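Bit of a strange request maybe. I'm writing a small parser for structure token strings and I need a real example to test against, not something I typed by hand. Could someone generate the tokens for this chain?
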Amino acid sequence: MFCKVSHKVCYDSETLAEEALIQHHARQHHVPGRGPVNIYLCDHCDGWHFTSKGEPHPSLSRPDVQERIRKEREGNYWERKLRG
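Reply from user aminoacidic:
Good idea to test on real output. This should exercise your parser:
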């Protein structure tokens, strides 16, 4: 579902948005200062969205999450490579 005002993807809960943010970082390789870094509750749709502004979400700096992102990136790399 998309927000009618911001046209961003809506997540039903903070937990789902946080997990989606982590997954996004595992799939995408943004240069520093680009791409989504945090989540927020939208005043218009009551859904959660990504934002590229502000401080990075605290979970993104946790060592276990950083390791998970690294492993998922490596897995994604090999999956793409093997598919041709």
